[in-house]
Design a protein that fits this description.
- Helices cover about 35% and strands about 15% of the residues.
- It is an alpha/beta fold and about 400 residues long.
- The protein has two domains: about 240 residues, Type I PLP-dependent aspartate aminotransferase-like (Major domain) (Aspartate Aminotransferase, domain 2); about 130 residues, Aspartate Aminotransferase, domain 1 (Alpha-Beta Complex), CATH 3.90.1150.
- The strands form four sheets. The protein has a seven-stranded mixed sheet with strand order 1-9-8-5-4-2-3, sandwiched between helices.
- The chain is globular.
- Bound molecules: pyridoxal-5'-phosphate (PLP).
- Pyridoxal-5'-phosphate (PLP) binds next to helix 3.
Length: about 400
């Protein structure tokens, strides 16, 4: 189908000048990976978002793999994760052998609240995954100290939330680990893929750093002959985990540094459009925007809406939007309906486990929302949705 308003796979179109910067850098670069620009980007990211230990990586999913390894998960360990999120929030922990415990969401913020997390904590809880979905942090911060006193680690999936804040502090600031994504659709992208991990303590940081790049460690025996063998030793990490390669390359890092300086402006642009939509649907009882919790500020990554109509009509709404040239998306199928997370059930499409999660998925629609979308086009999209919903019987 050819849409006049596609959902768009690009969140921010790269400026032409970026390619001039890359061309210039190419003349003097000493390596294309693991070099000066990666360190520079990490330092700038740390400073901007007040995160002491950061590591640039190939994407957020691999960052969550690294974090899952660092947790040293044992059989029986439980990880609490919202079922309403993207699959990569959860599957790295499944791969590491944890049991995933799904938690529900609040019907207005569409995020788990502190009580949703607390209701799932048991003596086996190893960590919670806090996902700032659509770019919005929830009130779960208020229970971090309680969770820590129970030896539970806090992992923030900030893939969609660069620049978002809670109580005036950047997301990731209060957590044990956090991960950001620079995939193509995100508010900023390092050439289509990319990510950043932040780690709350120096010991985990050093371990994860080794794991990021093939397990290389300083060779202890032949220090006087550094070239023997190939400049470093290679080991398993924590004597258990095989190393991998999750590096970001130097060109991506240059783009990351460039975009860090633009990110505030990018978020402001998105915010003004998000507010336009919020004003447009103010007092509308059928079309509801996400509530942004008190003390939270969003990165305004997406424009999801909840359509308060009988569920069977939602497909008709998608079809009518298509007829008008507007490509909408349905995010996110409750993760327990995927075969990856439920081997046993054959027909998972209607599996119901968590009431707010199931209802929200039935009623949600995500509109095209990216930086280059101009306000007049957005107004057309909003007006079309209003007409379509009002015409539903
Ligand atoms: C909430 C969430 N977590 C994790 C990821 C994974 O990010 P990446 O594509 O960088 O691996 C995404 C990406 O879409 C996401 O939206």
């Amino acid at each position: 189908m050819n849409f006049k308003y596609p959902f768009s796979a690009i969140g921010h179109h790269l400026e032409d000048e970026v390619f001039d910067i890359l061309k210039d850098a190419n003349k003097t670069m000493k390596t294309y990976t693991q070099g000066y620009y990666q360190e520079k980007f990490e330092k700038e990211f740390s400073e901007k978002f007040q995160l002491p230990f950061t590591l640039a990586i190939s994407n957020a999913a691999s960052g969550l793999d690294l974090i899952a390894n660092d947790l040293e998960i044992k059989s029986g360990d439980e990880i609490i994760c919202p079922a309403h999120t993207y699959c990569a929030s959860a599957y790295p922990f499944l791969k590491s052998g944890a049991s995933i415990v799904w938690c529900d969401i609040d019907p207005k913020t569409w995020l788990p609240s502190k009580d949703h997390y607390l209701s799932k904590v048991t003596k086996n809880t190893k960590a919670i995954i806090v996902v700032h979905l659509y770019g919005v942090p929830s009130d779960v911060y208020e229970i971090y100290s309680e969770l820590r006193s129970r030896n539970i680690k806090i992992i923030e999936d900030c893939a969609q939330a660069i620049g978002a804040k809670y109580d005036n502090k950047p997301v990731g600031f209060f957590s044990d680990y956090s991960v950001f994504s620079f995939q193509s659709h995100k508010n900023i992208s390092t050439l289509g893929e990319g990510g950043m991990i932040s780690v709350g303590n120096s010991e985990s940081y050093e371990k994860i750093k080794k794991q990021r790049h093939n397990g290389h460690t300083k060779y202890l025996i032949h220090e006087d002959k550094y070239w023997k063998p190939a400049m470093s030793d290679v080991r398993k990490i924590y004597n258990e985990i095989y190393p991998s390669n999750y590096c970001m390359n130097e060109f991506q890092s240059i783009v990351g540094s460039y975009l860090i300086n633009k990110v505030d402006k990018i978020i402001k642009n998105r915010e003004s459009k998000w507010k336009l939509a919020s004003d447009f649907f103010k007092n509308n009882e059928k079309i509801l925007m996400q509530d942004i919790p008190h003390k939270s500020s969003s990165s305004f990554h997406l424009l999801p809406l909840r359509i308060n109509v009988i569920n069977s009509n939602i497909d008709q709404i998608f079809k009518d939007m298509c007829t008008n040239g507007i490509q909408c998306a349905k995010q996110y199928q409750p993760l327990y309906r995927y075969h990856l997370f439920d081997n046993d059930s054959k027909d998972l499409e209607d599996k119901k486990l968590l009431p707010n999660t199931d209802l929200f998925y039935d009623q949600m629609i995500s509109l095209p929302f990216h930086e280059n979308l101009v306000k007049d086009d957005l107004k057309y999209i909003l007006q079309t949705l209003l007409n379509v919903v009002n015409n539903i019987k």
